[in-house]
Amino acid sequence: MTNFELYNPTNYIFGKGQIAKLSELIPANSKILLAYGGGSILKNGIYDQVKSALSLVEMVEFGGIEPNPRYETLMKAVEIIRNEKITFILAVGGGSVIDGVKFISGAVNFEGDAVEILKKRILFKDISKVIPFGTVLTLPATGSEMNSGAVVTIEATQEKLTLGGSALFPKFSICDPTVVASLPKRQLENGVVDAFTHVMEQYLTYPHDALLQDRIAESILQTLIEIGPDVVQHPSDYKLASNFMWCATMALNGLIQKGVPSDWATHMIGHELTALYEIDHARTLAIIGPNLYRTMFETKKEKLAQYGERVWNVEGNSIEEKATQAIEKTVEFLHKMGMEMKLSNYTSDYEKASDFIVNRFEERGWKAMGEKQNITLEKVRQIVEMSY
User: Fold this and answer.
1) Beta partners for 358?
2) Contacts of 343 (CB under 8 A, 6+ apart)
3) pLDDT in tens, 67-88
4) pLDDT by residue (tens digit) across 343-364?
5) b/e map of 220-245 (b: 16 or more CB within 10 Å)?
6) Closest C-alpha among 151, 366, 114 to residue 275
7) DSSP string covering 261-320, please?
8) pTM for the full model?
9) Bridging pattern class, strands 58-62 and 11-14
10) What is the DSSP letter of 147?
């Protein structure tokens, strides 16, 4: 097991009716920016619950944060915070809103052009330089409610880039599984697949000595396989919804990544597909993931076989046979979760994707990716073209 530090200061508040605790969680005399997305919270009752809990608090609202939040939109919120002297931000939404708020938090006091936060993948470590924020989660998927990472899209250049740092953990996150009941089927499908792939990025590498991390990762995968299709069909079932929400958080709150190698190339390629074609994030992961496993089969086959045995109960006479079955089982699950597996299912302009992505990676100096740094630009091209 490699050396690691585990730091996660987020106060995670789970269960029914917890939004009522907001007034106890936000510092006294705060002036709040209430940040949210396209307005679904106005229809599902979450907005009213938040407003009721904070009826005595001074508040400015900022709606319209997009799925795959846009830098250009977020900078408008940055200006509001500066002009209105906001002291606390409350993100009410899914991962896109929370990610957007993390950028806003860091950008308000950033010295220089805020676009450099994304271009240079700035890590914020000084909590005195950011605006504190909390979250009310409305869509389980990204785990952003209990981590310090974020992804933001620069619309002008069609780039989807990351930021983070220890100062960008939410102060608190309220996670009420009853919100799942109001989510559209497509968002539920995406959420399950997003969480599933987050685990795979940290787990599906090569055998190592961190036995507990593997077992925790496998348990999250098994739970998502068990409940994923059912929560899409029965989102008001509290047992299903609560396990789904907790799985999504556990998939990316840092715990299973400690002391182990990780990959993330599926996400790096998937982000480019979203930036180029505006395909749902989870669906880009479903397109790319299995073809990355096939392309990198020789260096991933031992872990693929372990995954097949422990998660899918596959049997075979060789590592290669078990590993192949594991990929097949994964594809079956993604299909069951409503995923289309080819880029051509989403766009007729797919043939430019490999050149676009390879050129972007080359410009950024991303020439060696994955847990062994062996996913070269040639491999990236192969993975993308297999995905057409």
Assistant:
1) none
2) 273, 277, 287, 350, 353, 384, 387, 388
3) 999 999 999 999 999 999 999 9
4) 999 999 999 999 999 999 999 9
5) bbebbbebbbebbeebebeebbbbbb
6) 151
7) ----HHHHHHHHHHHHH---HHHHHHHHHHHHHHHTHHHHHHHHHHHHHHHH----SSHH
8) 0.96
9) unpaired
10) S
